[in-house]
Amino acid sequence: MTRKEYSLSAECGYRIVRRLGSGGEGTVYLVCHINTEQLRAAKVLTNIREDRRHELNMMKHLKHNSLPRVIDVLEQSGYVWLIMEYIHGERLDQLALRGISEAQIWSVARQLSQVLMYLHSRKIPVFHLDIKPSNILIRPDESLVLIDFGASIRGHPDEGLNKGYGTLGFAAPEQRKIGGIVDGRTDIYGVGAVLYYCCYGKIPKGAWEQTAQRSWVDFLINKKGRWRHQGGRMLARIIRRCLLENPDDRYEDSRQLYKAICIAQSMSHFYRNFGKTVGAALLFLTALLFLFDSFTKEEIVTAGKRGGTQTAAKMTAETTIGEGAGAETESETENSEMEKAEAEEREYYRLLEIARGTGFTQAVECYERAAGLCPADGEWYLQLMEQVTADGLFDLEEENAVKKLIYSVQENGETTALEQLKENREAYGTFAYRMGLAYWYYYEGSGGKSAAAWWFECAVASQEDSCDWLETAKVLSRIGSYYGMLGNTGADEGREEREWNYWNDLKELWYMYRTQQEDALICYETGEELLSLLIMNAYEIWQQGETREEMTRIISEIKVFLESDSMKDELNRQKKLEEQSAEAWSAIERVFQSETGGIE
Fold first, then answer.
1. How far, rounded to the nearest angstrom, does the alpha carbon of residue 131 sit from its chain's CA centroid?
2. Of 22, 84, 271, 600, which has the fewest beta carbons less than 10 angstroms from its beta carbon?
3. What is the mean pLDDT of residues 149-172?
């Protein structure tokens, strides 16, 4: 049977390079963006529900390292095309079949639970509902990307599903029932199924029922003899709870799952390294208390009967022997330092998660502590700026809080958090760029443009290689240099040339933002600035060499932007830009109708 191929017209701005694959909801192609020559992934959705179109547009606002960036949603010839970031990586199912290490499985478990925390904690939560190995990509740096939101829903449905969604073997029982109610625990089932597949190389269906009744102590001693130590047993317990049929018996939410994974991974590491020392016994017993909410009472009692007395006796004997042993061995010191580092990392990410879900004052306290733990990690800086600009305003209180955080002197007493971030050039550049945007478009005080221009210069200077925002930062840095000239009414020999450059840089910025699907407020501000320049200086712009066609094209582009989904709730801004568009049209008409304006 010949498979159907789809095409994109040149008007969409993309050309198809090759087919990448297909799934239940559509076919994926590798495409090239014609203007920028950037490679992207385009999924044609051939049988999409009407109510899903708005959800797909909303996906453009999801920003997380473990999610593909959705760039655009196009409609052509009756089909919907989802244009996304092209991810270079290997599918998890292929990696698992080839062979996957314990460390890699723990990494998958942690990253998958982290991205679910992000999705489930949105103001309107997003539930993926099709978590499976083939929907997970592993980048060369082993970071994870969760793809294919074809079955996802936003918000808690008022009623159950009217038909089953998900993939057999990985979908939770409630997904397979007509009228089943889904929530975050449904995705948690998918995590358990993925981890099971990674451990066994097969789908849980059937195999899980056979192993579900085994003691968690014996689980994961498979035919390959993998993980004959506590690490596999602890992971098995997590998998088992994720895969329980009743959602109420699973982890309460993705945050609780993430916590269980972090603790179990730490226990696994130290049990493996200190399994025959006093420290191992103490750590193991302490961790059991933390994990009490995840064990069933029967399992705790059984574990105690099997090894409790022997472990206690062994602890007493080894403690007595070790009392005069003196200083720690070098190996113990190294592992102690490693444990401290891992504990600090766990605390760092815990603080970031808390900050996401709290008010700004409480969030700043979390960022303060996070900065003390990992001052050179770019994640808290970017999350801070995302939170600062979420309401479309960068006020003075927020500015002071940000300055206090980045200029605070760290424990060494010599360098600030920002100075330490500079060692990570890429992260520092991205943060500087975001600071520039905050000052440029959101700042409520005076001098925002000047401060922004300085941050853009810092961002540009920090980059040795090209990146997504570099050209935009260069243009904004140039535009920032024009503002002093614009307020000067005196004679200036180079004024006309700078005004012409200002116009062209604004145009370039507008087209960049529209291509990159930048924040609606940023596009609005840029469009408003372009229209104001046309209203005030249409004649001068024409004299410098601009065509009527290009000036009217800009106005038409802005009108298209006003009709987009991102502006449909911004009625006041829509009205203002519509009025300015009409004034700009009139200004252009006057230029070409006047005697001094010449003929077209």
1. 17
2. 600
3. 74
What pLDDT digit, counting tens, does each position of 335-348 carry?
A: 676 677 778 888 88
Instruction: Round to whole Å and give the CA distance between 524 and 319.
Output: 69
Phi, psi of 65 (to 5 degrees): -60, -25
Beta bridge partners of 74: 81
State the sign of the Cα–Cα–Cα–Cα dihedral 523, 529, 533, 534.
positive
Q: State the pLDDT confidence band at 164, using cuts at 50, 70 and 90.
A: low
Average pLDDT rounded to a whole number, residues 414-433:
87
* Integer Cα distance of 39 and 87 in angstroms: 9
Residue type present at position 582: A
Q: Give me the chain's average pLDDT, please.
A: 77
Mean pLDDT of the region 399-416: 82
Name residue 258's amino acid.
Y
Distance between CA 52 and CA 69 in Å, rounded?
18
In the three-class reduction of DSSP (H, G, I as helix; E, B as strand; rest coil), residue 60 is classed as: helix
Q: What totals of helices (H) and strands (E) does the chain contain, helices first? A: 22, 10
| Dist. CA 275–CA 268, nearest whole Å | 10
Indicate whether 475 pLDDT > 70: yes
Q: Where are the alpha helices (DSSP H) in 64-179?
A: 92-98, 102-120
Retrieve residue 592's tokens: 């070409």
Write the DSSP symbol of residue 394.
B
Task: Determine the Cα–Cα distance for residues 394 and 407; give it in Å rounded to an integer.
Answer: 18
Sign of the C-alpha dihedral computed for residues 458, 459, 460 and 461 taken in this order: positive
Q: What angle do CA 442, 447, 451 make, to 5 degrees?
A: 75
Residue with tokens 């960022």: 367
CA distance 337 to 98: 34
What is the rounded distance in angstroms from the CA atom of residue 257 to the CA atom of residue 114?
A: 9
73, 83 in Cβ contact below 8 A?
A: yes
DSSP letters, 434-480, are HHHHIIIIIB-SSSHHHHHHHHHHHHHHH-SS--TTHHHHHHHHHHH
Helix 297-322 to helix 278-290 angle, to the nearest 10 degrees? 150
Q: What is the pTM of this model?
A: 0.48
Q: Which amino acid is at 456?
A: F
Collapse the DSSP code of 551 into the 3-class scheme (helix H, G, I; strand E, B; otherwise coil) and give the result: helix
Listed in order, strand segments (DSSP E) in 204-291 are none
Buried-state track 125-153, b at ≥16 Cβ within 10 A, e below 16 = ebbbbbbbbbbbbbeeeeebbbbbbbbbb
d(CA 151, CA 130): 6
For residue range 523-554, what is the model confidence (pLDDT) as tens digits?
888 888 889 889 988 888 888 888 888 898 88
Q: How far apart are CA 131 and CA 113, in angstroms?
A: 11
The predicted structure's pLDDT at residue 402: 93
Which pLDDT does position 494 carry in this prediction? Answer: 67
Residue 192 in tokens: 């358990």
Q: Angle CA(424)–CA(430)–CA(434) in degrees, nearest 5? A: 140
